[in-house]
């Protein structure tokens, strides 16, 4: 029997990696590695290599393991500088390479609107006033926090025990992980018919 590990990644320096060991129904979280450069916090390539080594060793000890991973596919945004857009794409590319380094890995990229439409289904969206206050807009971060806590009330989505609020990088990576599990199981079900 295949042991499947699902991984969901919310990219970016404030993101998280969520790992679901399906056979044990156990989640673990890894914060994106960062380093200080000239007083600024930046993504750490070296830290990602260390995480890759640790996970590769851990996964290699599991018999007949298959890793199914999903990275949130975020494109450049209007108003971002060219440097910001490049840095974000560079980081997402490194994370994809990190996944392929783990062994037998199937990697998917998913747009935020896609995974949110699937995972938020059946849940009421959190609406907040727009910047002008004239309309209400969907707050995806607040909706993710709400949905994650309802789906897994036993999981601590704070960045640390001292934090008061859930961390959106943690809730998003968790929900992306649930999305890829649901997607992969449906795919396998269709293939087995």
Write a concise synopsis of the structure shown.
By secondary structure, the chain is of the alpha/beta class. It contains five helices and nine strands; from the N terminus they run E-E-E-E-E-H-E-H-E-H-E-E-H-H.
Characterization of the model:
This protein is α/β, with parallel strands linked by helices. 41% of the residues lie in helices and 25% in strands. It contains five helices and nine strands, in the order βββββαβαβαββαα. It has helices at residues 45-60, 82-100, 112-119, 140-151, 168-191, and strands at 3-10, 16-21, 26-31, 34-37, 40-43, 65-72, 105-110, 127-129, 136-138. The strands form three sheets. A five-stranded mixed beta sheet has the order 3-2-1-6-7. Helix 1 (45-60) packs parallel to helix 2 and helix 4 crosses helix 5 (168-191). It is globular, with a radius of gyration of 17 Å.
